[in-house]
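Sanity check

After download, print the first record. It should look like this:
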Amino acid sequence: MPSATPEQYGDYELVERLGVGGMAETFVAIRRGPGGFEQRVCLKRILPALANDPDFVAMFLREARLSALLHHGHIARVLDFGIADSAHYLTLELIEGTDLRAALRHLRRRGESLDPGLTSYLAHAIGAALDFAHTADDDGVAAGIIHRDVSPSNVLLSNAGEVKLADFGIAKATSQPGSIQSGALKGKLAYMAPEYALGGPCSARSDLFSLGVLLYECLAGHRPFDGGNDIHTLDRARRGQHEHLREAAPQTPGALASAIESLLAADPEARPANAAAFLSMLADVPPPALARRALGAVVRSVDTHDALSTSPGLASTRPAPTRRPRKRVPSRR
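Expected structure tokens:
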């Protein structure tokens, strides 16, 4: 809820706290200027208790540098970066709407899952965002930025039906020596590629696996590898054990199902070589002409409970829900 007395923070007025994570907190903020100028943004700042911790500051600075390279229509833009009241902050474009996690929860409550046309729209949008992040910065120079946390809570959906991949806070650039080798895991295990979850390196193909889990969930209403606990889920992913998408979601067009299934291969070498190759596989399943409008209608239908219960940074390890026939949210053609 908006604060009764907004906090002034540098050039910004903090009007509503959106959330808090292990390193930073986010706010709806307003920057004002002459002639009635007013800009609403999402402001992210390091938590006060960590403002002087050199390791956390270094992580935050790295996030800002990597995010600044990513100027793409399907990636949430960084607008500003600085220091105020002895704490680092960055501001991003504010997406008025919800995230995919809340939208899918809302649909599940209604016994529905996402229509294949809208899922194709998401696949094209997120695939294009990953293709850009994996291959180029704003000057077209190879950057190799691996997101490492492609999951529904990091896909923002606007009331107008825009799709934005967000939160590159744990992203890594392959140009940094050792940056994507094994070590402390980052991301949500339910969406994590098995080679990375088992301590191996993370690559662009690891991001594609996560995208496959996300898209499967959109259509089937549940994730492909969910087990009774983390260990069972990881074992199923390692062995590629899951119900085929056409069985879990029979209305899925064959070309779309095949493209998504290709992302879920346990062996990274068996997945598409890159995001561009995946997008090529979607040539026969273009999104409907009015997909953006239809997705906006879904976003605007998300109820307050689902929107407010979104918890970025937390992974669900609950068993897969009992399957039942699901209605499809139609894409308006």
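If your output differs, re-run the checksum step. Summary of this record's structure: The CA atoms of residues 202 and 267 lie 13 Å apart.
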